[in-house]
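hey can u check if this looks right to u? its 254 residues, i copy pasted from the old doc so theres a chance i mangled smth
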Amino acid sequence: MKITILGTGTSCGVPVLGCQCEVCRSGDPLDHRLRCSILVETEQTRILVDIGPDFRLQMMPQPFRRIDAILITHAHYDHMGGMDDIRPYCQFGDVNVYADRLARQGMLQMLPYCFEANRYPGVPAIGLHEISAGHAFRIGDVDILPVEVMHGKMPILGYRFGCFTYITDMKTIALDQEQLLRGTEILIVNALRFDRPHHSHQLVDDAISFARRIGARQTWLTHLCHDVGLHREVNMHRLPHDIQLAYDNQIIFI
């Protein structure tokens, strides 16, 4: 399985418009972060997790071929604001999108023209499927287990693919859901910054504690804001070797 990390930034991305901090002024491409998304691929199957407003830019360097499924974590714009840009992929057939009830409702509100009885010619052809936490399903040769995490007071989904788990925008997780993630070997999980607690996102220490509890062998931190610090300095001096900041266009083979 090949994991391509398409974006590792928060809702504003990095650099942040108008910001003059050292991270936003950095010339190191590792400090440039588009909105969060990953691409999960086997020889047979291609799955996108989240489709933010940077989707078109993120996919330009990727081979142009069918996307078998789009998994949505939750109905915030930075995680599904690029849905209209799937139009070129519809030449391969309808694009199947999987979301929980809240995210499904959000999509119907954001893209009503895609689901009208008499659709305008050329709008995205979307097959919208409702899923729920704890109920596994399969896309091609990939088994997927949705898991509920809390984004503040909002329930959202993380996804487990065998020994690999992807979670973004988590603040807390219930014990029964955490137990579903025990045995994860490779973890990508959100960590906003080191200090100043946030009402709906965990910090780096929270992410480290979570990774330790589920026994992850290697953890990559995502959904990073500019306050997290310079990529190279943080990875070298502030994090253990098995827990590192992820970066855009990083590839992980499992």
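The chain has a mean pLDDT of 97.
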